[in-house]
Amino acid sequence: MFGEGVSMLDLMALLKAIREKNLVLQVKIIDKPWEDLSGKVVKAMIEAVTTGLIKQSSDIRLRLSEKSAAIHP
Fold this sequence. Notes:
This protein has two helices and three strands; from the N terminus they run αββαβ. It is α+β, with helices and mostly antiparallel strands and 73 residues long.
């Protein structure tokens, strides 16, 4: 479980819906640039959390937008 009542299946369904709706989920870790969600970004998120780099909830941010409207660094 991830968070309160969120399963791996829930996360997979969310990511599937994002792809089907032509959306993009972007992640910002502390002061690094916004990046599209990918395996590399998830690995960076895990590393940031496990190494204690994350001090508060605003240190990792997510945003969801249409692919055509996504802002890339």
